[in-house]
Amino acid sequence: xxxxxxxxxxxxxxxxxxxxxxxxxxxxxxxxxxxxxxxxxxxxxxxxxxxxxxxxxxxxxxxxxxxxxxxxxxxxxxxxxxxxxxxxxxxxxxxxxxxxxxxxxxxxxxxxxxxxxxxxxxxxxxxxxxxxxxxxxxxxxxxxxxxxxxxxxxxxxxxxxxxxxxxxxxxxxxxxxxxxxxxxxxxxxxxxxxxxxxxxxxxxxxxxxxxxxxxxxxxxxxxxxxxxxxxxxxxxxxxxxxxxxxxxxxxxxxxxxxxxxxxxxxxxxxxxxxxxxxxxxxxxxxxxxxxxxxxxxxxxxxxxxxxxxxxxxxxxxxxxxxxxxxxxxxxxxxxxxxxxxxxxxxxxxxxxxxxxxxxxxxxxxxxxxxxxxxxxxxxxxxxxxxxxxxxxxxxxxxxxxxxxxxxxxxxxxxxxxxxxxxxxxxxxxxxxxxxxxxxxxxxxxxxxxxxxxxxxxxxxxxxxxxxxxxxxxxxxxxxxxxxxxxxxxxxxxxxxxxxxxxxxxxxxxxxxxxxxxxxxxxxxxxxxxxxxxxxxxxxxxxxxxxxxxxxxxxxxxxxxxxxxxxxxxxxxxxxxxxxxxxxxxxxxxxxxxxxxxxxxxxxxxxxxxxxxxxxxxxxxxxxxxxxxxxxxxxxxxxxxxxxxxxxxxxxxxxxxxxxxxxxxxxxxxxxxxxxxxxxxxxxxxxxxxxxxxxxxxxxxxxxxxxxxxxxxxxxxxxxxxxxxxxxxx
Length: 729
Ligand SMILES: Nc1ncnc2c1ncn2[C@@H]1O[C@H](COP(=O)(O)OP(=O)(O)OP(=O)(O)O)[C@@H](O)[C@H]1O
Known about the structure:
Bound molecules: adenosine-5'-triphosphate
Domain UvrD-like helicase ATP-binding: 13-311
EC number: 5.6.2.4
CATH topology of the largest domain: Rossmann fold
Distance between the termini: 66 Å
Binding site for ATP: 34-41
InterPro entries: DExx_box_DNA_helicase_dom_sf, DNA_helicase_UvrD-like_C, DNA_helicase_UvrD/REP, P-loop_NTPase, UvrD-like_ATP-bd
Strand content: 5-15%
CATH architecture of the largest domain: 3-Layer(aba) Sandwich
Number of helices: 32
CATH class of the largest domain: Alpha Beta
Helix content: 40-55%
């Protein structure tokens, strides 16, 4: 009996022709380009089985590399399911990081050079507490904090820490140095200098040991393999076959390590989907895949395009959608799966309605169905969790991020509320006095600290010699804090933000310290959402505690709750019956930065946003919904341009019922007129009334154009198109 018949009998899986060819191609380089749901993992496992059972390769001669520890476990489980009854031999699935660590440890031990790992868990509280004296705790974040403070003479914000960490990972994974470091954009000023200082610190600060972070594992392993030919050829001899899964997310240094290992026989099987590369921001590099045939002129390239996961509607729409991208291997994903429901798209009037809808829809799912709600940013998780909890729905949250609850904005709001209970507490006032319009100075706080307080602090201050404007403001503040105490929390937050001047103070901080205003105001909006419907300030504080705990413990609900909440990124490789993609608005999906860079001709981030959206769409087996809204709080937003793309795919222009314009002002067949399908960010157009401009936003029924002479204007798209108001320049 041949291998494939045997496999079919044992596992029930009948490989298709390309899958079979990929299994049989064991010698020489192979790039296996696989569409989502096309059985990558299945094929890779079968190939390993083939090497063991048919080619009698010893398992220790096979290097099977996966993207993360979780996918290594997943692969290993699948392998056991297929082959445990056929062979006792076990193949080790490893991440590149763990292999690199092995190389580094071995080399440094041999050289007698001690080392210390400086990356791992450190709580935000510990970090906030900081350190005193000259001895910096030997941890990446503390070291960066110290370097930042030395260079900028001020404290580093959490956002800046995240930014700088991403920058460092990126430059290391891309193997950048010298002038190239300056070219990488980073919100943190002098990031390249800080990076160089960080590298110097690690090598010199502790003379008796080398300090290494996670990314150093890769760069050092690469360096050692290049330097030590004996070491390299030992590993090369050991691993006769090298297979890597999810290779689209490998960084430059990871690709280099894999290439080195596979030499000279190059029995290298690279499984990848360039359309699912979503970690470019931290150094993954899809161009390496696109150049595979240049590196290996004798490479076989096979494409697995049949999707076994999703309904016809989902496969066809996603396949069309990804074609927006230019920088990709052309592929045609298809399926023989039957049709199911059409993809649903809804734009609600506001954010809360979207969440209410999700909660109701999830509740209505049939028993036994797996459902996921996917979002771009972790910040979407808290209001969603709040809504689901209020609706009595259990969930499993994939990437727990309870940072929200410890954020200083949340602390501030709680402190405002605490102070309203007792306006004699100098300790609380000290934390918020610069954040409302009471003009209370540091000196006044020091005075209050020295004074025995037995009445309202506001009265104490007003007894002193203070300017009349402050006296007036303190009297008002006292009244507001007093009223706040018995208010509904939603109202209280609005008063803090508005009349007490907190929003203004935050805006000022953003200007002074470069904080991300959108993010901070987003947190305040979320607090208002959580407060919605609650009766007391205490109830609000309790609710926050409850939510924090709920989110922390939701990770234990894996395989228990039929509902998963996850970011697009973490949904990679997974599948669900029903998928709801939420918060699909411009500024989030794609992000503001993606859009801005696209306008300035830097298209790579937008292409990555498209891939991320595609990963989200292709997680659904039978039911996919794309959700958006028009207002978040009082802010008008526009639905994601990607929604518009999908809508056009599902319902092409020609099929729409077009209302004839009452008075067609121009000949609509004129080729130079802008058509809906031609809209693109950055496209130069000319408006009949406002003249030349550039499309800088579109979504829903609006189009935003930056006009040369009339500034930025938002116009009704349908009106412009139907009346031929816009021409391509
Ligand atoms: N030849 C086949 N016949 C029937 N089902 C198959 C075949 N190959 C794979 N499948 C099934 O298709 C589904 C998707 O396979 P798999 O998870 O291996 O896809 P993938 O390519 O890794 O997906 P993604 O890239 O989206 O993570 C699985 O349920 C798998 O069992």
